[in-house]
Amino acid sequence: MVDRLANSEANTRRISIVENCFGAAGQPLTIPGRVLIGEGVLTKLCRKKPKARQFFLFNDILVYGNIVIQKKKYNKQHIIPLENVTIDSIQDEGDLRNGWLIKTPTKSFAVYAATATEKSEWMNHINKCVSDLLSKSGKTPSNEHAAVWVPDSEATVCMRCQKAKFTPVNRRHHCRKCGFVVCGPCSEKRFLLPSQSSKPVRICDFCYDLLSTGEMTACQSTRSDSYSRSPKSSLNDVSDDDDDEDSSD
How far is CA 136 from the centre of its chain? Predict the structure, then answer.
């Protein structure tokens, strides 16, 4: 079906509409063989709070952006190559239900659908696209993924020293390796993580010690149920603020 749609006028028109919705600031999306599989609004678990984002699934990439005007205008376009993606389901908890993790070497995050059916459809389509891509390229699935950041609201004290309380003066920081919310003194060191940045990035002392001794995988925590534990925020909150981390954080 994808091959049949690849060169159809209807597919070309749909992709052109998506390009226009992102405006001049968005990257061109029309290339030979690319097919728009589906689209919809998902709730993305951001650093500060859950936010609604518009997602577009193509046969080779996943695109999302901030909603400015529903169905008409989006900004802050993000493009994720699907061959680097793996997904894992998340257990329901509180207002955050029907969720799964989108994991890549450069960035990982949690998203939530409106219904269980919608979640199932998204996950099935993403898995099918990834499987088809890897089958055609002969590549193996990526086994390296960036940590999913723990939301700010989940930590009132440093998750490493368990002592430093966060205040407007004592800011929260995130370890780029484990995703923990940590205080400044516990994350003063930098380490080069090539999949995430060309420059050394902030990591906590715990991960630094393990990385320095070559134990690269030991500090990649597996908080499989922690991603869904955040305050009961409004899942309909639509913000034009950037949902990405501050580079100095």
Answer: 25
